[in-house]
Design brief:
There is one protein chain. By secondary structure, the chain is mainly α. It is elongated. The chain has one domain. 25% of the residues are buried.
Length: 187
């Protein structure tokens, strides 16, 4: 993928390391792969972000940080990718995870249908409580499905970035070769 595109939107590593709240973690934030845009670092970061995005509650970014730093993958990319889960996508993703978990566990284990969750924008705290109750009512199929879906999305994201990055590089090499061939013909 084009590094210029990513660099335009990602924060500068030096500014982050020198930030007054993050300076105390400086030793852990100095590895170059945490900030460099290379195929392996970005692919790993996308996988970490996709996995961490399905961690319940507000622990998604913390999970992404705790995985990206020891695995030495691009930290900003891992954090940004976790945003695929939000109030608009969390219910469909959890429903998909429930179905995935039911499939992996061998069909419908829950004989009583669970009423769908509805978000009330006027009452965030009550909606969060209702979301927690809805999640707990889904039980074992949801727990198994969340882990399985997180691992599946992480694997697919990793492979997609690796293949997409490689395809971009190959196409850039071919374009460069055509440009050079065109210049040599004119000369």
């Amino acid at each position: 993928m084009p590094r210029k595109f990513f660099r335009k939107y990602l924060p500068d590593a030096t500014q982050i390391r020198n930030h007054r709240h993050l300076a105390r973690f400086g030793k852990w934030l100095h590895h170059p792969n945490l900030w460099h845009l290379n195929r392996d670092s970005v692919a790993g970061a996308v996988a970490i972000g996709l996995f961490s995005g399905l961690v319940p509650g507000p622990l998604q970014m913390l999970t992404a940080v705790l995985l990206a730093i020891p695995l030495k993958k691009n930290l900003p990319v891992a954090l940004i990718v976790t945003f695929y889960t939000n109030p608009f996508t969390i219910v469909p993703l959890y429903a998909l995870a429930y179905g995935y978990g039911s499939l992996l566990l061998g069909g419908s284990r829950n004989r009583h249908p669970v009423q769908p969750f509805e978000w009330d924008w006027m009452s965030w705290m009550e909606s969060m409580r209702a979301l927690l109750d809805w999640t707990l009512a889904l039980g074992k199929p949801l727990a198994v499905g969340l882990v399985a879906l997180a691992l599946t999305l992480a694997a697919l994201g990793y492979v997609a970035v690796q293949v997409g990055w490689r395809a971009y590089v190959v196409l850039a090499w071919r374009a460069r070769r055509r440009r050079r061939a065109g210049r040599s013909r004119r000369a």
